[in-house]
Write a structure and sequence with these properties.
This protein has helices at residues 14-26, 41-47, 67-74, 86-108, 119-133, 136-141, 143-160, 173-187, 197-207, and strands spanning 6-9, 31-34, 54-57, 60-62. It is an alpha+beta fold. It has two domains: 6-74, Glutaredoxin; 83-207, Glutathione S-transferase Yfyf (Class Pi), Chain A, domain 2, CATH 1.20.1050.10. Helix 1 (14-26) links the parallel strand 1 (6-9) and strand 2 (31-34).
């Protein structure tokens, strides 16, 4: 019997959270290998590259951008693309990673270090984020501004879910992309704000998969 597939994953990564929920939705038993933010040695040794998520299936790496269609081919049902709506599902998934995640991440970024596993990892994370986004204290000072921007985005998604349990009516790739994009909020120990009841109930359904 082949061993379970292994998902090389970083819990603070929205792409990794999406991949985790995709596997759960498809009913695939899998193991997770933690990849530290500052040390990709084991990942490179196992997969020959340094991006996460990477799924190792029967000893062969499946890179992050191939995971949805790879899983769809391996386990066609339940499908990521209900009613043949692949184009729409993919477009919404990509939009969420590009737009929603950025708004959530800006709000959450300065709260990430305490959830990391070592001082080295925390130091490298803060250094890299500072280089990309500016001084840490400025990011912290702007958190209320970032929160308001994030809340507008959450309200848009909550409205999409008005009267439906899933973004496209049935679970789809769009749901897993959006959930991953919201995941930095969950990573730092926060919940969907209570005024967004549709969104909170939807997130609970996704967490319950698998």
């Amino acid at each position: 019997m082949d061993p379970n597939p292994v998902l090389y994953s970083m819990p603070i990564s929205h792409w990794c959270v999406s991949a985790d929920r995709m596997l759960a939705f498809k009913g695939v038993p899998f193991d997770t290998e933690y990849v530290p933010y500052h040390d990709k040695t084991a990942l490179i040794a196992a997969t020959g590259q340094d991006y996460v998520p990477t799924l190792v299936w029967d000893g062969k790496p499946v890179l992050w951008y191939d995971i949805p269609d790879f899983l769809e081919a391996k386990r066609p049902e339940p499908t990521f693309y209900p009613w043949g709506q692949k184009g729409l599902a993919v477009a919404l998934e990509q939009w969420s990673h590009a737009v929603t995640e950025e708004k959530v991440w800006r709000y959450a970024v300065t709260k990430i270090p305490p959830v990391l596993r070592s001082e080295e990892e925390r130091w490298v994370f803060e250094e890299m984020q500072t280089r990309a986004r500016g001084p840490w204290h400025v990011l912290e000072m702007r958190r209320e501004e970032f929160r308001k921007d994030m809340m507008k985005e959450l309200a848009r998604i909550d409205a999409i879910l008005d009267g439906r349990e899933w973004i496209l009516g049935k679970p789809s790739l769009a749901d897993f992309g959006v959930y991953g994009s919201l995941s930095p909020l969950f990573t730092v120990g926060e919940s969907i704000p209570e005024e967004f009841r549709n969104l909170a109930a939807w997130a609970k359904r996704i967490r319950a998969l698998g």
